[in-house]
Amino acid sequence: MENAEHGRVTAAVALWAITGDPGATLAMLEQVVVRFTGDDDRYGDLAEALRGFLRIGTVTPAARRSLRLVGARDLRLSAHRDYRAVLDDQELRSAIAAVLALP
Questions:
Q1: How crowded is the C-beta side of 9, counted as CA atoms within 13 Å?
Q2: Residue 47: strand, helix, or coil
Q3: What is the DSSP string of 49-67?
Q4: DSSP for 64-93?
Q5: CA 61: distance to chain centroid?
Q6: 21-40 confidence digits (pLDDT tens)
Q7: Predicted confidence band at 2 (pLDDT cuts at 50, 70, 90)?
Q8: pTM for the whole thing?
Q9: Are the CB atoms for 33 and 43 separated by under 8 Å?
Q10: Exposed (0-12), middle (13-18) or buried (19+): which is 101, by Cβ within 10 Å?
């Protein structure tokens, strides 16, 4: 899970689904979200991490802080620069709001 270039988030959520222990999964999801507050622009990873938090039903304090920063950005949350940017942005902002509402 830690050494994979792609699919780390999927592997982390699968690990939680198999073991029932959210520790390692939450750490991986948090890492993706915190990294996104910097210069990371892997919107697909962010969306997948948000779905992971929602599936587990909780979010870490560091991820919560980072999601507040990401949500406050004054730009579209999308890799696209056409009409898809609006759709992506709405989807990600909705998912961020749902994750921030978790305990």
A1: 19
A2: helix
A3: HHHHHHHHT---HHHHHHH
A4: HHHHHHHHT-SS-SSS-SSHHHHHHHHHHH
A5: 13
A6: 999 999 999 999 999 888 77
A7: low
A8: 0.91
A9: no
A10: exposed
C-beta of residue 52 within 8 angstroms of C-beta of residue 12: yes
Contact 63, 29 (CB under 8 A): yes
Given the structure tokens 């921030």, which residue do they identify?
100
Query: CA nearest 74: which of 88, 60, 96, 89?
Result: 89
Spatial separation of the C-alpha atoms in residues 8 and 68, rounded to whole Å: 23
Identity of the residue numbered 18: I
Structure-token pair, residue 79: 């890799």
